């Protein structure tokens, strides 16, 4: 597996975020796209990037800025084999890194995968990614990617996948999450559909006056960074309470519902 500079530089003891790029980009491109957020969170998290296993053409908005920076990659295989390759790839990356992975951050197609990983952790699948405590989904598309054979058939069709999540699991994730929407994003409706998969009581939906990309205005980046810090601190408090009282979640008050926060530039 090709390692990016972010993955091979001397490791700090900061908690880690597993970062999943969008379709038609790469780990290296995503490390560039998130540079503002990384800078804002440099004292709080270490970002770990990984390449999707399948090569593909450049995705929306990638060219011409990232011309010549291929190969471009994605998480979905048209032949339906992604579940046999994505999971081992992510598990190997995390094991080789050796860091304390506390959350997952996904953009576009990577957000679909990130939500699927959290759902498996929540459902306590035998092969779940138990390290994650929260998720951040930026300009996510839809539907979520379930990469466990227990969640979907081996070769699901898009029609089945969409029907499964829309009809049977309208809101299926109650872990702490943040959904970031771009009000100028041509895929905004898909981002809102993905957000509906999270229980309103456990998620924050933040809307920015931007397209299909991460926030670029410093004030917007700071708002998102502060939300991630608050999310992690809340997760840490929950871990402390559970250590004292394992049944804490059974009688804990429901998380306060946070409506969509509109942030106009």
Structure description:
The chain is of the alpha/beta class and 265 residues long. Helix content is 37%, strand content 16%. The chain is built from nine helices and nine strands. The protein has helices spanning 5-8, 27-33, 35-40, 82-97, 109-122, 158-168, 188-195, 218-244, 248-251, and strands at residues 16-20, 46-50, 54-56, 72-74, 101-107, 134-138, 177-182, 203-208, 261-263. The strands form two sheets. The chain has a seven-stranded parallel β-sheet with strand order 2-1-5-6-7-8-9, sandwiched between helices. A two-stranded antiparallel sheet has the order 3-4. The protein is globular. The termini are far apart. The model is unreliable at 147-169 and 253-259 (pLDDT under 50).
pLDDT < 50 stretches: 147-169, 253-259
Instruction: Round the mean pLDDT to the nearest integer and report it.
Output: 81
Question: What is the quaternary state of this protein?
Answer: single chain
| Main sheet properties | 7 strands, parallel
Q: Tell me the number of strands.
A: 9
